[in-house]
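ok so heres the complex, two chains, lmk if somethin looks off
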Amino acid sequence: DAMVIQNPRYQVTQFGKPVTLSCSQTLNHNVMYWYQQKSSQAPKLLFHYYDKDFNNEADTPDNFQSRRPNTSFCFLDIRSPGLGDAAMYLCATSRKGQGYQPQHFGDGTRLSIL
Amino acid sequence: GQQLNQSPQSMFIQEGEDVSMNCTSSSIFNTWLWYKQDPGEGPVLLIALYKAGELTSNGRLTAQFGITRKDSFLNISASIPSDVGIYFCAGRRDQFYFGTGTSLTVIP
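and the predicted structre for the whole thing:
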């Protein structure tokens, strides 16, 4: 009964080869987030969607894009992955009404770059 | 970006001992959250705090929202081996900001 589902759990790609990570949710939350987490570090916010409104963090590389075709799904596209992009990518959701409710995380996709 | 300082960075304790960790910031937050992350998994929400001074328990875990709104504390009583993991605080203002994490090791 996982509520935030990330696929795949593990992804291997080649240097420079585009890759897409997916996230789906059954919580009907209106906010979806993508985080990058490197070993022994805190999650770093890349961007988030509030409904269809896209909010990019200032220091998120241009290499990273996102799509949210509907409430339930959100995708992270890495156009030309470099070795430094190897990390765990976490999707999270929350509900924003009168303030934000806590975030719920998926189990992440671990991305390796060859 | 916003800095949340979490301490200690790591802890090694005997099973049965109590644990305390805290998170501090130079800025005020509206919400404080505590998460536990196991290796290869996503963070799991433990406790959410919404008001300054609020004290909330979840089983053996107790967390407090600091009265200044710039800090929060997490206590774990009578630790057990499955408490092992990395604990993150997170504060919310305009968005969520994460602390640097506390790695907990429980020695049986």
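quick notes: The two ends of chain A are 33 Å apart (CA to CA). thats all i got rn
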